[in-house]
Structures are given as structure tokens and as C-alpha cells.
Amino acid sequence: MVECRPEEPMNHQGQGSAMWGPETASYLLAAPAVPLVLYFHLLPTVFAGLAVHVLTVKLALRLPLRWGALARKFALAAIVILVVLGLCGGCLGIWSFLHGGRGMAGLLASIAETLENLRRTLPPDMADAIPATMDDLRYQATSLLREHSHRISKAGMTGIKTLVHVLFGMVIGGMTALHHFDATDRCPAFVAALHARTGALATAFDKVVFAQVKISVLNTVFTALYLLVILPLCGIRLPMLTVLIPLTFVAGLLPVIGNLISNAAIVLISLGVSPAAAMGSLVFLVAIHKLEYFFNARIVGGQVQATAWELLSAMLVMEAIFGVAGLIAAPVVYAWIKGELKTKSVI
Question: Which positions ≥6 away from 244 have C-beta within 8 Å?
């Protein structure tokens, strides 16, 4: 984003106060941005654009200063392409890993084994409600798909639309990164104010995302200790650990909801071993899930200089208003607002 410097305010009182017009207008445009993005389900698009922008700028800062303007432009363009391809490749890699022979196929096999174990241990009346084989499970799933085909088709179209929006967001993020280092000495006050707002948003996103990576690493370490140390000490060894541990890290990049995904998989695999293992996994992972709220608040709070109760309150309020999307966006939005208030010396 271009770091423009607006003209200095005039000494004359009327001319100096006129400078507040463009800045006020930029705040009026920024204020409804969050509810509009969440209402129209554009959060993945915005986050994709911010991710490309932030990563590109971070890599571009490592370019040699002696390079000329033209060489830097070409290098920036190459970095943008590499970042977009890297993000897309990473997503495809995760998808192929989860759907490969050692991923989803292995999880389905474990589900089948879990169903068989349940049928042997549960009372006959309850066991009859559980599919006996994967063919029975597949038949029930097919019937369910047939009954709800309209909703599933709509969800599929929504997924395609979201994917297209994410690609547009990446392109826009790359374009803004190309202009981030433009040496513009003077520009219109309104343009400078808009760049100040978007620059503060990018800074907040940068701090929060890297903090979330730390949270995911911490959560993965705790989960790995439970799966690799605590359970074996209790005489329990779960299968699919080479899938469950990476899944915990990848899913943990999503605030709060990511834990639900990985925890459900771990509890299901544990249920295939024994009910005691499933109960132990459920208790342990629920405790970790609850602690993640405080890990999130403390680690992210350290980045944006906010206390735990501030972030927890922001997450609670935005989740109540906008649902899961509001919960995910809350740390970034709160960091953005607090950064703007500090810039104006309000707090």
C-alpha cells in the first residue's frame, strides 16, 4: 500500500480544520466495512487478499536496496506470483494429503473399524441402529444425499463462488502489494487517509495471523504430547497419528473452530480403540479447546497490546452478532480498531 504523506495543515484556522474532511470521510467508509464483509460472506476473500499482501511485503523488504526501480518492480511482480502460487500449492497439498491413501481413506477405514467395535460392545437394540459395513454406511449416506440434494447443490455452488472470490482477493492483494513501496511524496489527502486505514488493517492482520500460527503450534505440541506420550503410558496407542498431528496444526490455523475439526477426528479414532480412550480424549481435548480461548487472548493480546478480557469480550460479541465468521474476524478487527485509536492518541 502506498504510504502517502498528505499536505501539512495550514496555520489559518479555517484551512487547517478543512484537513479533517478527507480523514473523516475515510473513517466513515471504513466503519461499515466490517459488517458489510461479514454480511456478504466476504471474509475468506479479504483474508486471502491480506495474506498475499502481507507475505509479499515481508519478502520484498529483503530485496537489495541497490536495485533500481525497474528491477524492484519485476522482483515484486515475481514475488506476488510466487506467493499466490505458494498459497494455492499449499492448499492443494493439504487437500491431497487429507484425501490420499494415508489420509481420508485411512480415516474412513478407521471409521469402519469403529463401527464394527461399537456393534460388538453396544446392546442389540442400539447396535441395530449402527451400519454393519461400509456398504451400509455408503447406502445411508447416498439416501441422505438424495433427500438433501437441493441443499447440497446450493452449498456446492456457494463453495465455487467462494473459491472465485478468494482468487479475486489474492489478485487484489498482489496488486496492492505492488504499489506498497511507491515513492509518492505528495498525494491527495483523501487518498492518503484511505491508505492509512488499509495500512492499519494490514498491520493488524499481520500481527494476529502470526500470533495464530504460534497458537496452532502450541496446540499441536499439547495434542502430540497427549497422543504420543500420555496415551502410550496408559497402554493406549492410536492409529493414524501421522494424519492426526498434521491435521491438528493445519486446522488450528482457524481460530477456535479449527480445534473442533481436529478434536472430532481424534475422538472418533479413539472410540475405535476403546470407550475409555474416547472419553479420555474427549475430556483432554475439551480442556485444550477451552484453554485456547485464553491462549488466543494472551498471545494475540501480546501482539496488539490488548489484555485477555478485551479480546475475549470482542470474540464473544462478534460471535453473538455474526456467528463463526465474527469469531474468526474478531481478533483482527479489534487489533485494527485499537491501532487506529492509538494512532490518534485516544488511548
Answer: 223, 227, 238, 262, 265, 266, 269
Q: Is the pLDDT of residue 137 over 70?
A: no
**Distances in Å between the alpha carbon of 238 and those of 241, 260, 264, 285, 286?**
7, 19, 14, 15, 18
* Residues whose CB falls within 8 Å of the CB of residue 259, separated by 6 or more in sequence, listed in order: 219, 251, 252, 285, 288, 289, 292
pLDDT in tens, 16-57: 444 458 888 889 999 999 999 999 989 999 999 999 999 999
Lowest mean pLDDT among 146-155, 169-178, 191-200, 203-212: 146-155
Backbone angles phi, psi at 148, to 5 degrees: -115, 30
Q: 3-class secondary structure for 222-279?
A: HHHHHHHHHHHHCCCCCCCHHHHHHHHHHHHCCCCHHHHHHHHHHHHHHHHHCHHHHH
Of the candidates 41, 65, 335, the residue with the CA atom closest to the CA atom of residue 211: 335
Alpha-carbon distance of 247 to 268, in angstroms, equals 14
Q: Which of 133, 138, 135, 142 is nearest to 114 (CA)?
A: 133
Check if the beta carbon of residue 172 is closer than 8 Å to that of residue 46.
no
Cα distance between residue 246 and residue 160, in whole Å: 26
Per residue in 92-118, pLDDT (tens digit) is: 777 776 565 556 556 656 666 666 666
